[in-house]
Amino acid sequence: MPTIEIPPTAPVPIQTERPRWRDTFAALRIPNYRLYVIAQAVSNTSFWMQRIAIDWLVLELTGSLAAVGLTVAMQFLPVLLLGPWGGVLADRFSKRILLIITQSSAAVLVATLAALALTGAVELWHIYAISAALGLGAVVDQPARAVFVSEMVGTAMLRNAISLNASIFHLGGLLGPAVSGALIVVIGSGWSIAANALACLIVVASLLLMRTAELHPVTPAPREKGQIRQALAYVRRKPAIAWTLVLLASVSVFGMTLPTLLAAFADRVYGSGAAGYGLLSSIAAIGAFAGALGSTRVRVVRLRSTVTFAGLFGLAMVLASMAPVMAVFAMAILGVGLARLLFVICSDSLVQLSSNLAIRGRVMALFVMVLTGGQAIGGPVIGWISEELGPRVAMSIAGGVPLLTAVVVALVLARTRQWTLRFTLRRGSALVSIVRAGRAV
């Protein structure tokens, strides 16, 4: 089989000056991206409403935290098993057309689940089946969505757009759980789920209304054998991507099960019910939203950033597990949301900017496979630990593993790259920095 050559990756863009405040929302100056963001604002709020409603609906039907974790697994397992093939499709076909197909399919599936919930006919197997079907759509939707952002804004605005996407996603995470918690208490879970079916159609409409002449389409990859092996080999040759995926695996398997853990703390530890679950989810989203906005001010993305934020995220989770009362727990969860979002944005930016456009769909499929597929493993594991050993033990493990992974990766990089820590008390300098061969890195 002939070797498929991938052109060299352009250097990761570096800004010597911190971005101006007026450039915080620079990507919104692009009409297609602005239309996309408006639709995503509605879609992400509705997605979080649905996520909270489904988790609580499963808890009401079964009374089992393990069943809640299994629901998460059913939605993310297809990505874990089939993710690379979704990346191949994203590299071969129009990302816009793929998104229109996946979002239309999601609207039908979500509307079906909403109808079952509203009529009182819903059963646990309905939720599992529809969650798995939504997961199949996500196999293609997520890598196509990641690469489509660069087609809308181009390379120069990509980092800003990634940060804004995360801001919109977590703004939805701020509003959605609060609205969903109130709706569940007043009229049940069905209407929160139904809202997301409408939101999927709004996304489809935004894609149809875009000015296609203003997009920056990537040349489709030819149909050839060995494209997944090619992507794996490419990642192995890129340390920035490979180590980022190692860190991401530890965070996604253990730390991304936060909704299950928050449901456990609200129900079993603090007795605050659905309203408390929605409140805690919104607090986590506040921290994430702040982190997303702060990330637009970052001048350069480096591997050390992903290591640092993974460690801080794990530490915040461990501290939250020891909180004696809900008020203290909520403050710790604010830090969890902040650190997790900064880690995910740095990871996303570093992987995208370190990969060539010709193979970016497949590389991002691997990224998405680790990010969301890891939750298919972590969901039931953390749910079972919560059930058998208690929510506090589960959260301490969910934070302890990413923290330990970050420490190990830092030690390996320190040994192979001769990194050391430098502490500086001088005004205007970083308190702690990582240096190599006498200079900051």
CATH level-3 fold name: Growth Hormone, Chain: A
Termini separation: 40 Å
By DSSP, the count of extended strands is 3
- Structural class, by secondary structure, is mainly alpha
* Widest sheet, order of strands: 1-2-3
Global Rg:
21 Å
CATH class: Mainly Alpha
CATH architecture: Up-down Bundle
Membrane topology: Multi-pass membrane protein
InterPro entries: MFS_dom, MFS_trans_sf, TM_effector
Keywords: Cell membrane, Membrane, Transmembrane, Transmembrane helix, Transport
GO molecular function, one term: transmembrane transporter activity
How would you describe this structure to a colleague?
It is built from 14 helices and three strands. It has one domain (27-218, 226-440): MFS general substrate transporter like domains (Growth Hormone, Chain: A), CATH 1.20.1250. Mean pLDDT is 79; it is low at 1-17, 420-425, 427-434 and 437-441. The longest helix has 32 residues, at 31-62. It is mainly alpha-helical and 441 residues long. The chain has helices spanning 31-62, 65-92, 95-119, 124-153, 158-187, 190-208, 227-236, 239-254, 258-269, 273-295, 303-321, 326-353, 360-389, 391-417, and strands at 419-423, 432-436, 439-440. It is 75% helix and 3% strand. The chain has a three-stranded antiparallel β-sheet. InterPro entries: MFS_dom, MFS_trans_sf, TM_effector.
